Amino acid sequence: MEADFAVELGVDDETLELPWAAADGGPCYYDLKREPALLLQVEEASRVPELAEFLAVMNSPAGILETAKCDTWSSTEINPEEEIFGAAYKFGSYVDILFSEKTARFSFPEHEHFAKRITQLLKRVPEIPAAAESLVRRCFYHMAEETKDGFYITLYVFGYGDDEAQARQRWAIALKLAENAVRQMLLM
Q1: Which of 11, 94, 112, 153 has the largest CB neighbor count within 10 A?
Q2: Number of folded domains that form the chain
Q3: How far apart are CA 171 and CA 158, in angstroms?
């Protein structure tokens, strides 16, 4: 499995507002950590059971993490760096991960350590046509009457295959490996 991490804190890089809501009553932030039953409201989780399981684990009441956003997709657009997999299809996902502890949300070293550590662990898993990337990004936390700049991690996971079903199956394996890596990190 290919694994990498990066820091994206530039002016033009992706950011997250928390809580967030799409315009016109579209998707919005659900606090799955404190209200696990809201997982049923997450459209992506209802379509993709493997993602629902991953979200449930990341938002475990006993854990130190929670999630803010997610999505899955399938594509035949293979980037040059993905050609090593010799695949016609890819199935991918992203999950935006936050630390539950408020002080940790504002610690760049903790986010960087998390991204580096999950990358190290995923580089050790068996060789499969899959990839993961952890990106440390800026988050604007809206808290009562103020907004504080902090961080979050976007975890991308991709599976590659000759058809969409094979790509999705490999993605599911890679997502489970990422879940296991997070669990292992939390035990250390």
Answers
A1: 153
A2: 1
A3: 5
